[in-house]
Amino acid sequence: MKLWMAGLGMAALMGATPVLEAMAQPSPAAIVTERREGFKAAGDNMTAIAAVARAGGDPRGTVERIAAVQAWFATAGTRFPAGTQQGAPGIDTRALPAIWTDRATFDTAMAAMGPRLTALREAAASGNVANFQAAVQATGAACGDCHRPFRAR
Predict the structure, then answer these.
(1) Most buried residue among 49, 133, 137, 147 by CB atoms closer than 10 A?
(2) Which residues pair with 151 in a beta bridge?
(3) What SUPFAM superfamilies does its record include (predicted)?
(4) In angstroms, rounded to a whole number, what is the distance separating the alpha carbons of residues 103 and 101?
């Protein structure tokens, strides 16, 4: 009897798994909101980092901000699944359709941020202002390489 009950319980759990997985998945609108907030936070951090570079200040104080941007970009490219593009029901986004129609170019642009941010963090940690300023410019260029083709103004 116990074995039969255990089997019934397992069957019920297995049948519930797809339902539970679906419930755990965020909605497309939630993904877009998270994406927007993450990019805004990264942009706010980059604005503060660039201000230090423009002022010729000590870059070592920007290392934590750079680390936060790095953490975001480690997974940012995964936040563009099907169903989160312009025109999808209930979606308000400035992400252009090219992200989904030219995914390889988008993925390449997103991947370029990793090495740029690593170089930026190393330059900041070194305290060398000139190297930091150059790394800020290079990182900003990588941002533009993605914004221009993949983000509506």
Answers:
(1) 49
(2) 95
(3) Cytochromes
(4) 6
